[in-house]
Amino acid sequence: MRITCPLCGDRDSREFSIRGHETYLDRPAPDAGEAAWDNYLHLRDNPAGETAELWYHGAGCAAWLRVRRNTLTHEVLKVDLVRDLTGGDHAD
Amino acid sequence: MARLIAKSAASGLLPIEIGTVTLTEETPAAITALMPFAGKLRALSAALKAAHGVPFPGPNRSSAKGGTRVCWSGLDQAFLIGDPAQADLADHAAVVDQTDAWAVLHLEGKDAAEVLARLTPINLGREHFKRGHAARSLIGHMTALIIRTGAQGFTILIFRSMAATAIHELDVAMRGVAARAAVQSSP
């Protein structure tokens, strides 16, 4: 599998490590209740098809990426910088 | 009081020359990480140009002026390699001295790209990875910063603690490339 990092370009999968489903971008409030936290921490679908995950480009630019990909074909559909999705700080 | 002897990262290991390729160590006076604060990229780039003659590089790029090179090294981060960073850069960026954290190796020669291609997954083709291009990637299992400095030259920054391993890996790759060339040229 190859992932096109928005900064570094087309790279081999060995440069990346996976965190998990993009659910991790939606952390519940501390007082959101057991059901919300149970869902955030433990409950995951196991889709045969398109999914979106967080990957870390540890051997490259050290950016967190959201990768949309197809688990059946291993096709990578779209890659975004997580900070662009969450409104993180930019130097520029 | 004990007097400590300063040693470079590759002390006693380099230079080596095998086939058409040489591997040498560079010892820049300073390596400084520049990490611009939010919204401060332009201000930092202007200050960098005024102080050191080089602007803040875009992703995967580097530029050099005199003996000082500035090289993109990650998300909102660049390394200033050569002169120590001028103090006013700290108005716009986190400025961190990393001089002793890195081994700086230089691979030069006709088959330098063939040697490096045995160890890194990035495309080193001259039409793809041009002079002044820089990449964060791997040398074997070690994270590295690779810069193409010329048609047949690459500068490689590797964690200092891994310098001996990196040199060993490059040495093996240099021997492999030279041995293959010898086989191919024999009658």
Defining traits:
heterodimer, A: 92 residues, mainly beta, Folate-binding fold, four-stranded antiparallel beta sheet, two-stranded antiparallel sheet, 6 strands, 14% helix, B: 187 residues, alpha+beta, Gyrase A, domain 2, six-stranded antiparallel beta sheet, five-stranded antiparallel beta sheet, 3 helices, globular
Folded structure, characterized:
The complex is a heterodimer of chains A (92) and B (187). Chain A is mostly beta strands. Chain A has one domain (2-86): Folate-binding superfamily (Folate-binding fold, 2-Layer Sandwich). Chain A is 14% helix and 36% strand. In chain A, the strands form two sheets. Chain A has a four-stranded antiparallel beta sheet with strand order 3-4-5-6. Chain A has a two-stranded antiparallel ribbon with strand order 1-2. In chain A, a hairpin with a 3-residue loop joins strand 1 (2-5) and strand 2 (9-12). Chain A is globular. The model of chain A has no long low-confidence stretch (mean pLDDT 95). Chain B has one domain: Probable tRNA modification gtpase trme, domain 1 (Gyrase A, domain 2, 2-Layer Sandwich). Chain B has helices at 41-52, 112-117, 163-185, and strands at 16-18, 21-26, 30-36, 62-65, 68-74, 77-82, 93-97, 102-109, 134-139, 142-150, 153-159. The model of chain B has no long low-confidence stretch (mean pLDDT 96). Chain B is α+β, with helices and mostly antiparallel strands. In chain B, strand 10 (142-150) and strand 11 (153-159) form a beta hairpin. In chain B, the strands form two sheets. A six-stranded antiparallel beta sheet of chain B has the order 1-2-8-11-10-9. A five-stranded antiparallel beta sheet of chain B has the order 4-5-6-3-7, with helices on one face. The interface between A and B is medium-sized, with 19 and 23 residues.
